[in-house]
User: Fold this.
Amino acid sequence: DGLPLSTAHLAVHDHAAVGRFVDLADEPSARYPGDGARTLTDAVLGDEQFNDPRWIGFEGTDFLAVVDLGERVTVEQVSARFFQNAASWIWLPRRLQVEVSVDGEQFIPFAQAQHEIGDREQGSIIHEMSAIGDPTTARYVRVYAEGIRQCPEWHPGAGGPAWIFIDEIRVNPKSP
Assistant:
């Protein structure tokens, strides 16, 4: 009858890296590729299901990426959203380290972030880690997330490869 069956809303979260090029040190897993590196700067956040294509997954490794902001900007905050679901072998990184550069060759430390969420927390947890530093002019932002790499000894998958899931790198986020 020409009537809509349903409606959908897509929240876009503005920041200085939206649509910018991301160079990944490692490609995401073929099992959880999202839309590749562009998933990290598309301004759309993943939901509480790890199979949401807004999340990209990296198995048994740390996460490392460089975002090219396209021009020099004043960087005050760099945030990255991560996912944890221990039952699915996915954990938050131990720490987030951010470095900046004007030329893409020489990087200097900007800031770090950690969290207080335990490895044994149950259910799906989305946590944004924010590295806040002194305002610094940069064109390139290098983001390193140190993963746990292997499932802990108490976990049924002990010794197996652990996952890092990430859905967005936000530079100077303008929304929560």
User: Anything to note?
Assistant: The chain is about 0% helix and 45% strand.
